[in-house]
Amino acid sequence: MTRGLKTVGYLASLGLAVAIWDGLIRCGLANADLLPGPGAVFKSLVEQATTAEFRADLWETLFRSVLGLVIGAAVAVPLGVVMALSPAARGFFEPLVKASYSLPKISLIPLLILWFGIGTTTNVIAVVLSTLLPVLVYTYHGVESVPKVLLWSANAMGTGPREMVWRVRIPAALPSILIGIRVGLGLSFVIAIAAEMIASNRGIGKLIFVYGESGAYAPMFAAVTAVVIAAATIDIAFLRMSDYVLRWSDSHAVKR
Amino acid sequence: MRIRRLREASEAMKHQGLETTIGTVGRANARPDKIVVESVSKSFDGMRALDRVSLKVRSGEFLSIVGPSGCGKSTLLYMVGGFVMPTEGRIVADGKEVKRPGVDRGVVFQEYALFPWLSVAENIAYPLKRLGKPADEQRTIVRRYLDLMGLAQFADAFPRTLSGGMKQRVALARTFAYDPDILLLDEPFGALDSQTREIMQEELLRLWRSTGKTVVMVTHDVDEAVYLSSRICVMSQRPGRFVREFAIDLDQQMTREEMVLSEQYRRTRNAVWLSVREQVVRPGMQEGS
Asked: Which of B82, B118, B160 sits opposite A250 (nearest CB)?
């Protein structure tokens, strides 16, 4: 019931935006050559979606962003846990994290091209570098801020140091870790597409760039729309998974 | 004016012979000391929270520590638990100096401290697993305490779906199930509504009587302390020290209703209440709540 109503609300909101977009062009307020109408974009999207090349490009982009996020999280989660547990590790990594936090990782792409050439490796590394820090910071705070009373209680019940990490700290930090990964998920598509524009011969990012350069705006918007749909689908799937994994959790931080 | 009246009232209590010097109540009883607190002080950032506190808790005793909020009574309990180290002095439990938490001392916190990611049954089984009990024995014990605490139908529920009273029931079941010799209770019923609190108190009393464990409970509820304890120690304002001690010897055959109405209960309760009150209302200080 509530979920159904929510979906209706979402669709109404999106429908209204599309209607305004369409209206602007029909009333001549926007130049249809520079901003194609939703009809033209939809038509182009359907046409392109039937071609194997387009699907391969979309797949390539999704593969790069998800792989980058998986590698980033695989490094960031253990590192965040270690930083929260060991003052020495914290002392060493904290300045590095702080120094690199505000650095736009995308600006490293020319350097990455120099080292790894044009292609998947450079793209994936750009995603890894960008998603690493948010996941790391959320994990660190989650593990570090486990309520003292839970740790005391676990201690009193004979929990050893190793069990304390696996059975108490990590489960308690899970809501926070999953929020970090979701933030990383949002970033990963942005970075993958931006990286493809500069450092790839394939992928949706490259496609958007080429269409944009050649003035083929309807296909360009169609490609953007395809990415939005794919990213939203993956995000929803991730949320569903989080809802299930965190079904014990009081806080709705990660839930809708 | 009011303070003087309190003083006089408490002087009167002394004459009634209710009150004795610390450490002498029930000394004739030859049971061994289970917990010994030897001249323990605790400071936080130079602020003294506890000042040379000494206490002996005999095996099988139910001791309550009452006092104004912020007097350091919980800190003392945490030190017995081994979570916090004394600045001076030492604490001995079962002949061994307390250096860290141990499974001989079970703790129940006001905030329940259940693991929210484990079901009720898994929470109760947790310490049994840590102690390496065989799986079938774990199951039997968990089943017994689920039944005993009326939790059977919630075995697979996550704690977040339970009311405060139910959560505290799980916390008590979890602690009783792994059978520590000593129970440390930190305002265990402080977060519960009054009906639930009374029911839980009765369950605790029943469990204590049937197991003979040594219990140290921190509370600010005088009625709770008088109803449950065999002895009550009253703590002063910060820095906390023990100022009074009461032996409670109520007829255990009485129902709670009879007990609350009895002259002996009222007298004891008023004596303890005045003694705590005296600590809360002190010259030059705002009256606490």
From this structure: B160
Q: Determine the residue among A148, A150, A157 to mutate to test chain B binding: the one whose Cβ has the most chain B Cβ atoms within 10 Å.
A: A157
User: For the whole model, what pTM was predicted?
Assistant: 0.84
Domain ranges for chain A, please list them: 1-30, 34-245
Write out pLDDT tens, residues B243-271: 889 988 877 777 888 888 888 888 888 88
End-to-end distance of chain B based on CA atoms, in angstroms? 19
Domain A34-245 CATH superfamily: MetI-like (1.10.3720.10)
Contact list in A for residue B178 (CB cut-off 8 A) is 157
Cα(B183)–Cα(B175) distance, rounded to whole angstroms?
Answer: 8
pLDDT band at A141 (very low <50, low <70, confident <90, very high): very high
Tokens standing for residue B3: 């303070």
Nearest Cα of chain B lies from the Cα of A213 at a distance, in angstroms, of: 52
pLDDT at B27: 46
Distance from CA of A232 to the nearest CA of B (A): 28
